[in-house]
Amino acid sequence: MTQPTATANAGSPTRERLLDAAAELFYREGVGVGVEALCRVAGVSKRSMYQLFDSKDGVLAASLERRAPAYLAFLLPPDDGGTPRERVLHVFERLEEMAARPDFRGCPFVSVTAELKAPDHPASLVARRCKDALTAFFRREAERGGAGDPELLARQLTVAFDGSGVRAVMQGQGLDGLALATATALLGAGGVGSAAPPVFPGP
Asked: Whole-structure pTM over 0.90, yes or no?
């Protein structure tokens, strides 16, 4: 698999336009978008693209790498307090918010990996690092909250997050509290916060 090429043009306007276009197109239309369409939307020549990256795979991986910090910053709570339970539920509140938007196409990192079906693809590796960062956040909060098995709870919360996003895409509608209720149940079962049973939304 190819990697993004190392270049002194890392912050060039051409590169930024290309990555902006890639993030939008690949999320909306999938990784099958061709180089010509990508360059046309970005207003970049194919020659310029190949001077910056050795392939479309490199553009895809770089676009995910660039998107990851902002994505995590949106999901994760600020470091200014809150109980572990509140901090974890903040992530699921953000997911509920995203899933209610008409342009929601699921988690961009899950979507790309599912389309590629290649765990060793550069973009899949980037996606995995982003997901590992989310799981690490859940694990830290589970430890702070006194979970019996923080590692297991962190993985369960990650599965609930990803599965909820997939369901929203498949059903073509928001989650209506389902993701939040599921996370609440997992936290209670794992020994973090209130163990009171959550109220699940209707069908």
From this structure: no
